[in-house]
Amino acid sequence: MNDAALPPLAERLQALRQLLLGDDETPLDPPPSVIFVGGAARTGTTLLQNVLCSSSVAIPVIAEAAPVRFLLESHRLTGNHTRVHTGAYFASQDSLDDYYRGVLDSLFAHLRELHACRVLVLKEPELTKHFFELMRLVPQACFVVAVRDPRDVVTSMLDWGERCRREGRSHLFQQRDMAALAEFYLAFYWRFWTDFPRELLARLRFVRYEDLVHDPLGMGRRLQRYTGVPLADYDPTREWRHVKLGLDQRTSPIRDALTEHYGKPVTEAKVGAWREALSETEAAEVMQICRPIRVAFNYRPYNAGHGVILLAFDHAPTVELLERRCAVCGYASERLAVHESPAAALARVRAAGRSPAAVIIDAVRGQSGVEQIESLRALGDLTPAVVCMPPSWVARAMDRVERIAACAHVVKPIKMRALEAALQAARGAATASSTAGSVAHATSTRTRRILLVEDNADNRLLIKAYLKQRPYDIVEAENGVQAVAYIQAQEFDLVLMDVQMPVMDGYAATAAIRAWESSAERARLPIIALTANAIKEDYLASLAAGCDDHLTKPIKKQTLLAALDARFA
Length: 569
Hints:
The structure is a single chain. This protein is an alpha/beta fold. It has 3 domains: 3-22 and 36-268, Rossmann fold, CATH 3.40.50; 302-440, Response regulator (Rossmann fold); 448-568, Response regulator (Rossmann fold), CATH 3.40.50.2300. It has helices at 9-17, 45-52, 66-84, 93-115, 131-137, 150-166, 178-187, 190-194, 209-214, 216-227, 254-257, 274-277, 280-289, 291-296, 316-328, 342-351, 369-378, 391-403, 416-441, 457-466, 480-489, 506-520, 536-545, 557-568; strands at 34-38, 120-123, 141-147, 204-208, 240-245, 258-263, 308-312, 332-335, 356-361, 385-389, 407-411, 448-453, 472-477, 494-498, 527-531, 549-552. Strand 7 (308-312), helix 15 (316-328) and strand 8 (332-335) form a beta-alpha-beta unit. The longest helix has 26 residues, at 416-441. The radius of gyration is 27 Å and the shape is globular.
């Protein structure tokens, strides 16, 4: 596709987020006879394939659809040769496509007959990069792509590399190179936001590994509705199968050569393992490289050390569900003790030296969630709150909810995305209220401390000259590593962050700062990115990395002063 015809990157990434498998899926008509499962290695593609293959109408699980990949490579190479030598093999690209379409149809018909099934569920990670070509060649197929938190993917890659080392095998994943591993992951998805053929996207859905783990039955229902594959027999507590052809069995009959291997049930899969395996700097580097994944699929750099969520519920199964969903968002959680009020529970959490990030509250012991939050506010407790309510209560309770400071609501049954949005809204409102109060009591004439992070000495000199007449104390750093160290050791009011620097660039430094702020429960420090790139995509990249604003070099004095005045107003 011509780049000029593509919508802006932000629009493309937003469109991909809309392709996350949801509750309101429209069933495909006609239902697909082939389902391709894709995604990078270590993102849960085998897990996703096994969910779909729990149906009696689907093919038994076969590890990789390598023959399809070989046919697609042949199609691509033949097409390249045809363009060079017109008419050597096929009269046109359309006739080439028709030929390979027939070959693939024959292969799929053979597989359905061989395995006595109605639907083929074929997994091949490497095919993910070529799904758009497959969409044109296999119109009766749909495509389901697994995505996963980049930090957990890299952690799983390192675990696999260590396993290979113990077995005496070499593997890319044995190198603890965050950039190489993150770029390997990103390469599987690149074409989804670079080529972006809108007309083909109806047959494509993304599934987050975290949603599959924490809401397995709900995801099973969504997959069934979208694909038309009956999943009544899907049991997330059952071990999942992995079928492969043993290297010493290749001379055996095909059905005898397939051997089954088993993995942990979906309910025992782990989310957030990166916290025990990666340093903050490593995690920040991975997220900086994988910014498009982070933005498109809403992976935010949460850290479980940034606070505790109090769950005020009487219903134990709901509490267990919310504990899992809070973990997806990176929060620790705490339950009410028997006969304990929300106010007493918050006091207990604080007495233990832990900071309450929010309270999620329902009707408890005859008192509605709204009434309990109003009681907390009457006691002067401004902990961000999310009130859970049934749909029938929304109309009559919303006026009261909107009058409560730092409060949001979520409608039952509680959905993951709705809970994330409500937590973000409640905590954002609390931060805004706190900031407004601080500004109201601050003096406008006090000296502001600014950290200037810039590897070019001439640029540092120029910016200091611009600010010479202002009440600013300028501290200089030459790279991102120095910047992170300064911020952890000293107090600053704002950071001017160059993007392109040696050692650690501005995006990685910003991500590391945000991670440290969360773990140390520090207030968000304004960071303004300084970059020579003026296109909209770079502005969005700065915001995605955690910056608050973006100024383009060469920076004019009035532009810089206006940006600082706006921040310090």
